[in-house]
Amino acid sequence: MSACAIVGPELGGLDSEWQSLSMNYVSAALSAPAKVRNKYPRWLYWLSRYTNDGVKTMWKHRARARELLTPILQNRINATEELKAQGKGATKRKGPRKYEDGVQWLLDAHTARNKSLTPDQLAQDLFVIMTASIHSTSGAGLAILFDMMEHPDTQSEIIQEILQTRSRVQGVWTRKSLADLKLLDSFMRESARVHALTQYTAVQRIPTTSWTFQDGLEIPAGFTMAFPSYHRNFDPDVHPDPNTFDAQRHFRKRQQFTTHKYHFASTAEDMLNWGSGRHACPGRFFAQETLKLLLIHLLTHYEFKHAPETKEEETPKYLPNNMFIVPDPALPILLTERKVPL
């Protein structure tokens, strides 16, 4: 889902080499670090590049990615120069750019800092983004799809909202028009509340010295800190009637309190899924738009339901795995293409 938006249409096709390359890199990147830590002392980590199969695989994929990305990056540089020549620079452009994807965004970020972006650095940056986005975005999308099938009445309302908005914007989906899908956004946030992919939000911080707060709470040195996001999502003091899936829960909050909070990608005190403050997930807005575009396409082109063998009470749809609770990717779903797309 993320590849086309991240690397653009040239490499982001369904069966493109980039798809398999990025998936294989992510697989190696998730498994190799633990093996290196277990096998090598810290002062020999550098040796793993030459002796550890997982790390060697990562470097091999990075080299191939560099080759694939070289002409793509050059296209973005040329397009940027053309816009500048027309008086439509990256910071003050009057018309749409030729490319809007992760390659262009990273080029803009480096240019803004007066740094040059090399194909090798681009490959590394994109792989970091892919590592963070592939499983989380697909997992959240599948969870939303499961919840859609459990709530067909709300699904019909969301389809009507999509059709009305699409007609008003003449079929052009932008960040602004996607933000107008308030019911869909509320449904997605409620799905994330009920079916968070992790039980805890890790802050990846370990205090080097003990710290005592004013209320007496002490955090000992050397402890890994995390916040119980799953438990907070089901706290009745935070979410009334927390065991009920309420598709309009967050839409009502936006009406009652503020329109700037309680979006799917918002950080707020009622949900910790994205983290908080300066260390909140920087890719949450990208994930939000990607998922909305995916759901728009699915809802307007297909009808879907659980397969007959998927029994409501007997078939688990979510699989616990340590601190993760992920939707079952092997659960069969019946898809029927609409004879006439909506």
Word description of this protein:
It is a single chain. The mean pLDDT is 87. The strands form 4 sheets. The chain has a two-stranded antiparallel ribbon. The chain has 12 helices and 8 strands. The protein starts with a helix and ends in a 5-residue tail after the last strand. The protein is mainly alpha-helical. A hairpin with a 5-residue loop joins strand 2 and strand 3 (218-219).
Mean pLDDT: 87
Unreliable stretches, pLDDT < 50, 5 or more residues?
A: none
Q: Look at the helices and sheets and give the structural class.
A: mainly alpha
**Beta-strand fraction estimate:** 5-15%
Globular, elongated, flat, extended or rod-shaped: what is the shape? globular
Let me know the number of strands. Answer: 8
Number of helices: 12
Q: Radius of gyration from the CA trace? A: 22 Å
Describe the biggest sheet? 2 strands, antiparallel
Helicity level, as a percent range? 40-55%
- Ends apart, CA distance between termini: 21 Å
User: Strand arrangement, largest sheet?
Assistant: 1-4
Give the SSE string: HHHHHHHHHEEEEHHHEEEE
Q: Secondary structure elements and their pairing?
A:
Layout: H1 3-7, H2 17-39, H3 48-51, H4 53-85, H5 102-112, H6 119-150, H7 152-168, H8 175-179, H9 182-194, E1 201-202, E2 211-212, E3 218-219, E4 226-227, H10 229-233, H11 249-256, H12 284-301, E5 302-306, E6 318-321, E7 324-327, E8 333-337
Antiparallel strand pairs: 1-4, 2-3, 5-8, 6-7
Key words describing this protein structure:
8% strand; 12 helices; 8 strands; 342 residues; two-stranded antiparallel sheet; 51% helix; two-stranded antiparallel ribbon; mainly alpha; globular
